[in-house]
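Researcher: I'd like a structural prediction for the single chain below. Treat it as a standalone chain; there are no partners to consider.
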Amino acid sequence: MIIRPKLNWFRLLFVWRGSVLPQLLPRLGLIFALSVTAIVMHDTMRTYPVELGTPPFALVGIALAVFLGFRNSAAYERWWEGRKLWGALLNTARALGQQALSLAARREPVQSRQFLAALGALAHALRHQLRGTDALADLAPRVPPELHARLAAATFRPALIMLWLGEWVAERQREGSIDGYAVLAFQHNLNVLSDVIGGCERLASTPLPFSYSVMIHRTIYLFCAFLPFGLVDGAGLLTPLFALLLAYAFMALEAIAAQIEDPFGNEENDLALNTICEGIETALHDLAADPGFVRAPRCATNTPDYILD
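Model: Treating it as a single chain, here is the predicted structure.
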C-alpha cells in the first residue's frame, strides 16, 4: 500500500505511483486508435456505415455507472472489513501481551517474553498465509525451535501458533502462575484471535462472483470500443479527448475495484500488512519495556509496504 502526504490539487493531477493509469495505458492507446479510425471513416466515407449518435451511449453509460458503483462499494467493503480485522488483531495482541506481563510474568518473565514474540509471529504467519507465501524464514527468529519445527510441517500455521499460545496458558495454570479467572480472560482473547483469522480466511477464499465481474468487464470494454463512433458526429476532432476521458473513468474504476476486492495482496492499493505486523511487534516491545525482549530482525521477505513520497 502507498500512503503519501496530502497533495494540492495541481500535483494530484500528475501523480503516477499508486494510480492505475500505468496499467491502463495500452488499453487507452487502443481507444485512441479507434477514435482516430472513427474520425478518418467519418471524413472519408460518403455514407457512414452506422449512425450511432450519443443517446444510446448516454443511456448505457448511466446504467454502467450504477453497476460500477455497486461493484466498487462491494470491493471497498471487503477492503475495509480486512482493515478492521487487522485492527482487531492489533488490539487483541496488545490485550494478550498486557495479560501475559501483568498476570503471568511474576515467576517466569522469560516465558512471558516468548509469549509476546509468538504473538508477533502469529501476525506474520497470517500475513504469509493470506498472500500464499512461505512464512518459515520470518518465523524462525520469532518462535522457539520446537515450535518452529512443528510449524514447518503444518499447513495452517496461524492456527498452530494459537494452539501453542493456549498450551502456554495451560502450562502457566498448572504451575500456579495464573488462576482460573485469568485463564478465562486469556481464552476470551484467544477466541477473538480465532475469529480474526477465520474472517481473514473467509475474505481471501471467497472472491466476488466471477460472472458478475465478467459481465461488468465486458460491458465496459464494449462501451468504450464503440464510444468514438457515437461521439464523432458531435465532437469531431475532439473525439479522442472525450473518448479517452470516459474510457479512463470507467476502466480505472473497474481496475481499482479489482485491486481492493482482495485486500491482502501485494498491489499498491492493498492493505499494508507488512507495516501492520511491524506495528504489532513494536506495540508488544513497548509493553514489555524490558531489554531482554528484543524484536526479531526484519527478514528478506518482510519489506515495508508504506511508501512515502
